[in-house]
Amino acid sequence: DIQMTQSPSTLSASVGDRVTITCRASQSISSWLAWYQQKPGKAPKLLIYKASSLESGVPSRFSGSGSGTEFTLTISSLQPDDFATYYCQQYNSYSLTFGGGTKVEIK
Amino acid sequence: EVQLVQSGAEVKKPGESLRISCKGSGYSFTSYWISWVRQMPGKGLEWMGRIDPSDSYTNYSPSFQGHVTISADKSISTAYLQWSSLKASDTAMYYCARLFGSSGRDAFDIWGQGTMVTVSS
């Protein structure tokens, strides 16, 4: 299986901050990467697919970049609704795998 | 509205069997693969396997192969996840999710609300 490693595991930030989360793949996955947001007690929500394509209805403050083995999710100006856990997921392989998650907390 | 609606929470004893369901609506159920994803308490997301509802072709993560069975009934637009003998370690939230494209290798664009399974003696 392709291993996905996210960093940091926890991030403390304030409203208005620019936030960057990194996801690294154990082998090249081209641009076959998605990002999700999950709030407590809720199902995950798709934010970004194909590394940088914004899902319909997702605010433009979210952006994704990268290819190969290194990817980033950036929130340009953190809003109160953005405090959540974020996961990356690769779909280069038919055995799909997620990163371990990054919890974005209020500083 | 495109949605996946899952069956309700379950409390079971070790050794019991269980089947939970995921009903799709608002789209052509046979045009998209369905996957199941496990989330143990306080932990991350784990992909379990996928099914093509058009022909019930399935494949599983190596971590879950042989421990669960995924099936579907396209006549009622419903996918299932079942266990023949539950263990305490199966306690988790289980999500069904629709795969974005038709290849079976994609992102998850629609998620069910989750089914909490608790296994305790």
TrEMBL record, chain A:
Q: According to its record, what are the GO cellular component terms?
A: extracellular region; immunoglobulin complex; plasma membrane
> What name appears for this protein in its UniProt entry?
IGH + IGL c32_light_IGKV1-5_IGKJ4
Instruction: Enumerate the subcellular locations listed in this protein's record, separating them with semicolons.
Output: Cell membrane; Secreted
> Per its UniProt record, what PROSITE patterns does this chain match?
IG_LIKE (PS50835)
Top-rank taxon, per record: Eukaryota
Record field: transmembrane? none
Any one Gene Ontology BP term: adaptive immune response
Q: What is the lineage of its organism?
A: Eukaryota, Metazoa, Chordata, Craniata, Vertebrata
Domain Ig-like: from-to ranges: 2-99
Query: Which PANTHER family did the record assign?
Result: IMMUNOGLOBULIN LIGHT CHAIN
Report the main location listed first in the record: membrane
What's in the keyword line of the UniProt record? Answer: Adaptive immunity, Cell membrane, Immunity, Immunoglobulin, Immunoglobulin domain, Membrane, Secreted
